[in-house]
Amino acid sequence: MTNTVVLGVIGADCHAVGNKILDYAFSKAGFNVVNIGVLSSQEEFINAAEETGAKAMIISSLYGHGEIDCRGLREKCDEAGLDDMLLYVGGNLVVGKHDWEEVKEKFLAMGFNRVYPPGADPEQGIRDLRDDLKLPKPE
Known about the structure:
The protein is of the alpha/beta class.
């Protein structure tokens, strides 16, 4: 089983700091991180996953348009034969103030496996990914 993940910032979002923090954290935790950077399209995430055999996509969005940018991604993954792809998303995913549980439920309904609020600790995502991939706990 591979531990390769595709990491990037989706859509017209150019916020790079969180992307670098996630890259560092997941790499340090032993994952092979394929970081496609900022301003990334759904197609770029899918192409990177196909090319590398990744089992998960870790998508961040900070400019508030994550809902628009992520809409239909699960269906595109399925069409590309990536129907077992784990989809993680986090950040400022919607414009304005919304109840976090409502935002989370919206993304889960869109086919995401895990949804993280702004400021989430990368260690939670790392634990979740290890669990979802059924990887052994680190020593």
